[in-house]
Amino acid sequence: MVLVSRSVDSDGQLDRTLQALYISIRYQLHLIRERTITMNKENINLAKNKIALPKVVSQDEWLTARKELLVKEKEARRAQDALAAERRRLPMVRIDKDYAFEGPDGKASLLDLFDGRRQLIVYHFMMEPGSDHRCPGCSLLVDNIGHLAHMHARDTTLVLMSRAPLSQIKPYKRRMGWTVP
After folding, report:
1. How far apart are CA 165 and CA 22, in angstroms?
2. Secondary structure letter of residue 2 according to DSSP
3. Which residue, among 114, 112, 164, has the nearest Cα to 138 in the 3D structure?
4. pTM of this prediction?
């Protein structure tokens, strides 16, 4: 994995292809945040600041309710799997534009970011040039990145990308104790 700084076009815009990757990843984070907020609202009674627990029922009632929920969970999983398969069948787009990135090893092209692998996952770490704001969701994700050998075994490279310059990224990386390249 490489933490890189992305140079934007002269008009300050990202290429549409990279924007689509960013939007997809940001949407996934939005879903995680939304699910967390929903869970918090359902499980915490803010007026009394106590956890609101579901009602207590017999083992048979629980098993019936669990089986009903399991049917819904399986339907949702099948729908999600079908959607993922449809996404994988989307056509590809040739990228002819030369992208310039600044990484720990200097300048790099988009092809360089693949690091010789067939697939590239780009994660947009939301840190704007000159801003003191650090995205807590992005930081949480980087805190929990495991060993990349599993991705590498699947011929995949993970790259964290930010619009901020490396001179702004490096001190934050050091402060957080991250060992990602």
Report:
1. 18
2. E
3. 164
4. 0.58
> Per residue in 124-145, pLDDT tens?
999 999 998 999 999 999 999 9
DSSP character string of 3-41:
EEEEPPPTTS---HHHHHHHHHHHHHHHHHHHHHHHHHH
State which H helix or E strand residue 101 sits in: strand 101-103
DSSP summary character for residue 44:
E
SS3 179: coil
Give the CA radius of gyration of the chain: 21
In this structure, are strands 44-45 and 50-51 parallel, antiparallel, or unpaired? Answer: antiparallel
Q: At what angle do helices 136-143 and 166-176 cross, to 10 degrees?
A: 60
Closest Cα to residue 158, out of 177, 137, 142?
Answer: 142
Long-range contacts of 138-144 (CB under 8 A, 24+ apart): 138/29, 139/176, 141/29, 142/176, 142/178, 142/180, 143/176, 143/178
**Per-residue pLDDT tens for 46-73?**
555 677 888 999 999 999 999 999 999 9
Alpha helices in the chain (DSSP H): 16-43, 59-88, 110-113, 136-143, 149-153, 166-176
